[in-house]
Amino acid sequence: MVVDLFAPPRYEVAGAVVVLLAVLIAGAYLLGKRHWIPALLFLAALGIWPLGLIVGHVSFDGLAVMIAVVLATGVAFLSEVKSDREFELLNARKDSLVVKVRRDEAVRTVRLEEVVVGDVVLLETGDEIPADGRLVQATDFRVDQSLMTGESEPVGKQAQADDDARRLHRGTQVVDGAGEMLVTEVGDSTYLGGIARGLANADEKETKTEAGRVQRKLSVSKERTPLQEKLERLAGLISKIGYLAAGAIFVALLTRGLVVGEVFWPSSSAEALKVSSALLQYFLYMVIVIVVAVPEGLPMSVTVSLALAMRKMTQANSLVRQLSACETIGSATVICSDKTGTLTQNRMRVERASFRPVSVSRPPAGMNAAARLTLNAAVNSTAHLEEKGGKRVAVGNSTEAALLHWLHEAGIDYRELRKDYRPLRQIHFTSQRKRMATVVRLLPHPPSGSPPPLG
Length: 455
Prior knowledge:
The protein is α+β, with helices and mostly antiparallel strands.
């Protein structure tokens, strides 16, 4: 490598290269674009190598280094781009989550971005509130507002209360009960939207504030993996040792040059050129030591390895967002996953029943077991059915919707029963209670008119 660099030296070309690099670095500093320096140096190297080929001073080692850098960064870049595109598709699906709203006396589902001011949104346990609004009807309604306030305990909400107890914010979660919300603000006009706008000018000190909590939830983490951090610290330590060694070598070579007469005060242009050549050789030796000693490719090699692991996992239908997942998954012995919607399709149906749904008489006195089961499936529920694309889809809890499908297949219209029996109070299902109860009142006369269409 040393012979290739210095045999025979082309002083004019070497001087021009040094001047070019100095101009590039100085220009980047003056423009305040220090992050441009690596790219500018790389582009300069791409231009200098053909120049060396023309003048007959070819550095094949330099070409090999450039090819290795291009391959390493290219693999990592392409893997990240592919992963980002796949997750953009998933995020687009997430942004298109459906919301249950009541419009024109019918319950239907709309996409999250189609919710407008004045809509009445139906909410139940597990739902994410899609906009800001006021609670107009509620039963044992509790909301997780930790995104906004940082408080881990759910907050109870009531429809017949002051504005603070009725106010609901986008992004919070319903943890218990059911209710209906009148939408008052959407999009950037919501409280969450205001925080998101403020994040554009947020500095590092805001990471522990309310805006920082929202930013961490809304953004995708690009933090380095633990292994990369350790390798970077190791590379930094080796780099410092390499810089010290390179400086010591330059001082030693300069001392030797002064002793043997290679470096002296020139008295003519020829002597100045000779001294400059010797100093340039000392400088290049120092640069060689730095390049060899500083393991800049160590963290990059880890990135490439993790990117290849990410690609392999993607081929196995395991979509990975963070490179750290590829690093830590090798140590995993047990993977816990929520089965609903992940390992299953979140679609339920009644496969077998001891009774077939039957018509419910008025008044309900003396109903048999089949009639009581039919009434319970229709009224003791918050789910609905909706016609979309020629198919009947569930709106709300999939278990309750399966019972409504069961009624429909038997020719029972659950809407007619709900028109006859008005819910007075509902105690919703929780993991502790493990059941749901509804107190109803039989209307003296069913409302006139035909039920609204499912669609």
